[in-house]
């Protein structure tokens, strides 16, 4: 893509590869292993719908997710908004929005 100013923008579609889980929150990431990153305007999931659009956040969706740290901000805690907040399923399920998340990637 380019703008009139001459600036160019691009997107690389990365596949997520997650291995060797360790921690106490439960593994809600390995089911997303090998999937391409999906956004509302670039649907790469295996669902009949667009998971990024439905759940308000870009992520390595399968059909659709057991985690989504890019979900919309909902004031934390239990919610009636099924899986639309920042979700880590194995910690509290889909009807619980995390208030703060942090993701660290090591190469």
UniProtKB/TrEMBL annotation:
Native species: Stichopus japonicus (Sea cucumber)
Residue ranges constituting the Fibrinogen C-terminal domain according to the UniProt record: 1-107
Identify the PANTHER family for this entry.
FIBRINOGEN/TENASCIN/ANGIOPOEITIN (PTHR19143), PROTEIN SCABROUS (PTHR19143:SF444)
Q: Does the keyword Thylakoid apply?
A: no
Q: Which UniProt keywords apply?
A: Disulfide bond
GO cellular component terms, semicolon-separated: extracellular space
Q: What is the lineage of its organism?
A: Eukaryota, Metazoa, Echinodermata, Eleutherozoa, Echinozoa
Answer whether the UniProt record assigns the keyword Disulfide bond to this protein.
yes
What is the name of this protein? Fibrinogen C-terminal domain-containing protein
Q: Which InterPro entries match?
A: Fibrinogen-like_C (IPR036056), Fibrinogen_a/b/g_C_1 (IPR014716), Fibrinogen_a/b/g_C_dom (IPR002181), Fibrinogen_C-term_domain (IPR050373), Fibrinogen_CS (IPR020837)
